[in-house]
Amino acid sequence: MNHKLVIGWLYPELMSTYGDRGNIITLQKRCEWRGIGVEVKRLDIGFDHKLLTTCNLLFMGGAQDQQQKIVAEDLQKKASTLKKIINEGIPGLYICGAYQFLGKYYKEADGTIIKGLGILDLYTENPGINHPRLIGNIIIKCHPEFISGSQSKRDSDLRQNDNEGTLVGFENHGGRTYLGKNIKALGRVVKGFGNNGIDKTEGAIYKNSFGSYLHGPILPKNPSFADLLIKLALEKKYGSPINLSPLDNSLETQARKSIAKRLSIEL
Amino acid sequence: MLNSLIIFLGKCISLVSRMLNLGSGSTWPGHIALNANKNFIKDVLKNNGRKLKIILVAGTNGKTTTTKLIRSILQENGKKIFENTSGANLLNGIASALISNADIDGQIDKDFAIFEIDENTLSLILKEITNPDFVIILNLFRDQLDRYGEVNAVSKRWADALKKLDEKTTLILNADDPQVASLRLHLEGVNVKFFGLNDMNLATAKAQHAADSTYCPNCEFKLSYSAIYYSHLGAWACLKCGNSRPKLNISTSSVFPLLGIYNRYNTIAAILLAQEVGINKNNIISALKDFQPAFGRQETLDINGKKVQIFLSKNPTSLNESLKTISDLKAENLLLVLNDRIPDGRDVSWIWDVDFEEIVSKFKNITISGDRAYDMGLRIKYAQSIIHDSLFIIQEDLEKAIAMSLEKTPKSETLYILPTYSAMLEVRKILTGKKIL
Q1: Size of interface A-B (CB pairs under 8 A)
Q2: In chain B, which residues have their Cβ closer than 8 Å to the Cβ of A255?
């Protein structure tokens, strides 16, 4: 059977400041190299909310403040559709600004509150201009129940191999995110700041949606995570367990190890 | 009196640091001067009155080349010039330049001071140099988000700082960069001149992914372009508020001494400035004909009979343009060097905003080096339509990488080296045995 995925890229024009396009490239290539058909739908300002329901996998990146305000306005109009498909378990990766949007609110440095979509039980506050941004290389160890709620709970690559449950990236954010009771962290910070620099949590998992502050971008250096997203999307679409054919990840592994080595962490 | 002492001590420090080859002689004296007297820059300039003309060159890309172009034109036309050392773009670099060019009484026997200014420093400099004679703003691209912050925040700080200028200053702006051109909306009384391109043959077919300001800086409506020259630079207009590319005072030249569209902008900016200074057109052109590139900016070196050309590539736009320029030269041998030190920006995510996809297959051999060689390796791997392992080699050790890539370059061909900033300094040090800065 020829599998095919539709990836919805939310606001590629505005929400792609930190090289997060690399996540789309990685998903696309890792599908193509396996003979899985891919279509990337670019969902820019003013897109028809019904397009969301035709997507098997969603991605949204971060941006500059001015851009985020333009997007916030547009996204509120699509909030109910997005909430519906996230609750149905359509997998998605939401980085930095996108991750913050999914929460209840974002409090800016000057105290202004920007309403979030309220899909994830979390909120973000910028403590003000006198507090430094959280910047640097980061390594996190993923939650043991990384993909709870998905059909592929038992055979996740990430769980089989402990080492690959470690994610490597670069963070750069002023906002501090705090998780509520109804949501799990994506992982624990081994090196770096994570959600808020205090509680050692990083990112969030809700159903098949993943929020994170990791740029780098996150997926090229964490190919198991990329494959997990592809697998979840295919299983959701086709309703049966999927085993992805293996790809040569040796360059990816070397890239991960070279960062870990610099941070004196063993991978 | 205090300033004389500072200048004397500063000269001593810089002499000693040069003798001991400490390599930081371009910022230390200024650093100490500003600690001793925070008004040092202001005092020295005041002391010299308006006979010393000040030119500030700001922007993300092209500062060093534009500064060198201006210096060449002015010098060839008999003007006495000094400038801050390239890379020493902060207040301490400027203070150091004043120290080395002033006599003990603080007098500077020059006609022009040309200072390249960092994105973040422009507002600070304009507090010290309140009435510069000329300010050139070349462009604003995303670069080192970890250090400078985001493009919109930078342009807002610039607008606030430029507001304080008056009719003593001529502001030279890139009309094709919407963020830069829109700075004019906040000004009163300043003499503003614009440079930009007007040649459809140079326009690109589609927008590059790394483009930054495609939204109107005035009303945030999406901009329309009738021509895009590179990144977000082009003939733009906002159909909502009517903000559009201002009328150009210069759009071309009979001589462009450097390759690439980005250098056309640098060249016409320098010419426009020279015209404003009052230099005659023919004299400007003849000075440009003899122009030699600044170090690492298309600089050509001869290494054991093989030609090496270095294209500093420090952010998505600059790497995109370097790749486009060398691909027009039918380049086949490439060495990419990616570092993530403070001068490079610690976040290397930006390499994924570079459009490698249509270009990688054109090279016969690609070598990759630097602190983040593996990140660049992954970028190239994912830029290929089919996995083709032999396309590139990763060698973290820069010296070995240079030797390997030179060896693979045939005698009659050129090795093109595209390094980030700190990598460029290292590459030059290895190739020439000389240290800069």
Answers
A1: 92
A2: 374-375, 377-378
Contact between residue B155 and residue B119 where contact means Cβ atoms under 8 Å apart? no
Set of chain A residues whose Cβ sits within 8 Å of the Cβ of B215: 14, 66-67, 70
Contacts of B232 in chain A (CB under 8 A): none
Domain containing A43: what range?
Answer: 4-262
Residue A6 contacts B where some CB pair is shorter than 8 Å: no
**CB-count exposure of residue B221 (10 Å: 0-12, 13-18, 19+):** middle
The answer to whether B349 contacts chain A (CB < 8 Å) is yes
Which helix (H) or strand (E) segment holds residue A169: the answer is: strand A166-173
Q: How far is CA B423 from CA B85, B314, B396, in A?
A: 18, 10, 12
Does the distance separating the beta carbons of A65 and B152 come in below 8 Å? yes
Residue A128 DSSP code: -
Considering only CB atoms, B378 lies closest to which of A20, A172, A255, namely A255
Q: Which of B353, B374, B383 lies closest to A19 in CB terms?
A: B353
Scan for tokens 């899909």, then name that residue.
Answer: A119
List Cα–Cα distances, B405 to B147, B357, B402, B430, in angstroms: 32, 22, 5, 14
Q: Which of B142, B215, B353 sits opposite A21 (nearest CB)?
A: B353
Asked if residue A156 belongs to a domain, the reply is yes
Is A96 annotated in the active site? yes
Query: B214 and chain A: CB distance < 8 Å anywhere?
Result: yes
Q: Which domains does chain B have, with CATH numbers?
A: 52-98+110-289 (3.40.1190.10), 297-432 (3.90.190.20)
- Chain B positions touching A16 (Cβ under 8 A) are 209, 353
Buried/exposed B255-286: b ≥16 CB within 10 Å, e otherwise: ebbbbbbbbbbbbbbbbbbbbbbebeeeebee
CATH number of the structural domain spanning residue A196:
3.40.50.880
Q: Is A2 exposed, middle or buried (0-12, 13-18, 19+ CB in 10 A)?
A: exposed
User: pTM of the prediction?
Assistant: 0.85
Helix axes B63-76, B261-277, angle to 10 degrees: 40
Structure tokens at B387: 């996995």
Which chain B residue has the Cα nearest residue A23? B352
Given the residues A31, A55, A96, A142, the one annotated as active site: A96
Of residues B202, B169, B205, the one with CA closest to residue B184: B169
Number of independent structural domains in chain A: 1
| Cα B330 to chain centroid, rounded | 25
| Helix or strand holding residue A39 (H, E) | strand A37-43
Cα angle, residue A165 at apex, residues A162 and A166 outer, rounded to 5°: 110
Please identify among residues 125-154 of chain A the ones whose CB lies closer than 8 Å to any CB of chain B: 133, 135-137
> pLDDT tens, position by position, for chain A (267 residues)?
689 999 999 999 888 878 889 999 999 999 999 999 999 999 999 999 999 999 999 999 987 777 788 888 899 999 999 999 999 999 999 999 999 999 999 998 888 898 999 999 999 999 988 899 999 999 999 866 564 334 444 444 444 454 558 999 999 999 999 999 999 999 999 999 999 999 999 999 999 999 999 998 999 999 999 999 999 999 999 999 999 999 999 999 999 999 999 999 888
B374 token code pair:
């593996």
B151: contact with A, CB 8 A cutoff: yes
Enumerate the β-bridge partners of residue B414: B307
A215 is catalytic: yes
Residue A267 lies in a domain: no
Q: How many CB atoms lie within 10 A of CB A148?
A: 13
B139: tokens are 């462009």
CB A255 within 8 A of CB B409: no
